[in-house]
Sequence to fold (341 residues):
Amino acid sequence: MNRNDSGFGSLPSYAPLAAAYVPMQENAADRYEASEALSRGTLFPGLDLPFMNVVNDTLPATPMTEMMAIDFVADELELYLDTHSDDLEAFAMYQTFLALRQEARERYSRACGPVTQQDMLGAERYTWLGNPWPWEYRTGREA
Amino acid sequence: MFVYEKKLQYPVRIKNPNPALAKFIISQYGGPDGELGASMRYLSQRYAMPYPELKALLTDIGTEELGHLEMVAAVIHQLTRKMSDEEIRKAGFDTYFVDHTAGVYPTAASGFPWTAASMQVKGDVITDLSEDMGAEQKARTTYDNILRLSDDPDVNNVMRYLREREVVHFQRFGEALRLAMEKMDQKNLYAVNPAFDR
Fold:
């Protein structure tokens, strides 16, 4: 088997009976870039197993979807690192995305309003009440 | 402590209201394999977990499931906006409407309200992680079934996204079970329950 095939992982060669085994995802697996990862619902092509092989189109780029894509990569890496905490290369990528997340959050908040109440630090008035509320139907760039 | 982020994890923009779809998608809000049960299961199971990887993973996936709960609610809310009395009757949404109007209530598609009886917290490492893997598969199948029944592309984008998250979570729970078993007695994994016998 090709070790770089991102759809495969490692199983124990010798292991206790009466137990369930899922292969461990290998370090340095292939990855999508951020906006494709968000559209697909995973950062990892090896875990991308769509029903009837139908996949989502890439989302149109807006300030909101750009922020979502960065947040998504960070969230996905957190789950991966919970079970691969010794993968320093993935941790370095996580560091990069934490920095990108902070920049994206500041950029979005300035243009479209706070995402967390903390984002109102330095604001001139209480802007938490403003639209968009995330569950409402909207089509603007902030939604 | 939880801090609210005023955004969804993935966008929900349903152009065409359609209460007939809301009738069955509501099951992923409050049905037996829905997102409310998922978040309550993982966030409740974590207290018994003896290993840091398991505490972290159940916290992080449980938190993500709360975000998915909000996404499913957004789908229901948008599918049921601006309904006329006639549309409610024609869609068969009348049985939900009479009890909840256009509010979002945690119930199964069958009408059975959300119940903790659809989840378990056994307080045993292998048992709870095995349940979690099963739970991700049940949720994945529910999204498959929704995708079979729905022909709305705006809805299906969201369902495909949420379905794929179930696949990723299954993988992570499987890895967590591997990590846990490696710390246990290799000659007899069932000799003790490390969540209780410390």
User: Anything to note?
Assistant: Chain B has eight helices and no strands. Chain B touches chain A through 56 residues (CB under 8 Å).
